[in-house]
Amino acid sequence: MAYETILAETRGKVGLITLNRPTALNAINSGLTRDVLEALKLYDADPAIGCIVITGSEKAFAAGADIKEMQSRSYVDNYLDDFFAEWDAMQRVRKPIIAAVAGYALGGGCELAMACDFIIAAETAKFGQPEITLGVMPGMGGSQRLTRFVGKSKAMDMCLTGRMMDAAEAERSGLVSRVVPAGELIEEALKAATKIADFSLPAVMMNKEAVNRSYELTLQEGLRFERRVFHSMFALEDQKEGMSAFAEKRKPTFKNR
Ligand code: HXC
């Protein structure tokens, strides 16, 4: 598959997507949107892939939606195209997606990282929702997902002042799962992704689905969903293998990887 704005390569069982518009700090334009969503769809459908990593450059994961491309759009254009709604397709990706963030993750870049399943940040990462400085607001999930990650007070602060959050604050606030030295970002993200890809794929996908349900359901409904899925997992050969391997003091060999 030929892409113009990303590099897509496989590292073992991991699909690695590198945003690649260096002259615009990986700003999200229509081409990058098309390329990322296509690569995600192909990796999700590829039985040889168990986990996906999205990363950018040392300077920028992505500095936001492409301001120059969108500046002349009208309300009617946005409404008729349902501008940015195509990113909803990310929620249909059933395999895990890790964001590996170095440098700027601003506006749509921060929102893209938050749409992944978890974020590993380099010490150089800077997160922000600076849309207010452009006379607008987040449009790809920032006001909703950021609030769920870091709580109302900090989300308000970020959206209303447009300030950036460094990696240490992002980790403290629960926005990122871990912070690693910049030189080790890709290696650490690939290590985590490979670890995930070596587990039972149906078990991985069911874990992802259950955690995501916690955003949508009441606690009682979520607990019921979790229990039903947990029960069903005993129909997996990989459950028998995983538990037998533990009892026999050996490493499991999962069939559905
Ligand atoms: C288009 C962008 C861009 C963007 C940077 N560039 N961000 N182009 N859209 N979001 C371009 C610059 O115009 C410049 O191009 C080149 O990338 C390098 O950027 P510089 O500004 O020269 O770099 P630097 O001085 O290091 O500053 C880095 C920066 C700054 C602090 C990240 O670029 C910046 O503030 N960018 C905009 C951040 C932002 O406001 N993001 C939110 C966008 S709105 P030239 O051609 O001059 O070299 C948004 C809405 C989301 O995301 C809602 C729906 C998704």
TrEMBL record:
PROSITE patterns the record matches: ENOYL_COA_HYDRATASE
EC number: 4.2.1.17
GO molecular function term, any single one: enoyl-CoA hydratase activity
CDD domains, per the entry: crotonase-like (cd06558)
Reactions accelerated catalytically: a 4-saturated-(3S)-3-hydroxyacyl-CoA = a (3E)-enoyl-CoA + H2O; a (3S)-3-hydroxyacyl-CoA = a (2E)-enoyl-CoA + H2O
Keywords (A to Z) from UniProt: Fatty acid metabolism, Lipid metabolism, Lyase
Protein's GO biological process: fatty acid beta-oxidation
InterPro entries: ClpP/crotonase-like_dom_sf, Enoyl-CoA_hyd/isom_CS, Enoyl-CoA_hydra/iso, Enoyl-CoA_hydra_C
Pfam families: ECH_1
NCBIfam families linked: PRK05862.1
Entry similarity comment: Belongs to the enoyl-CoA hydratase/isomerase family.
Function: Could possibly oxidize fatty acids using specific components.
Protein name: enoyl-CoA hydratase
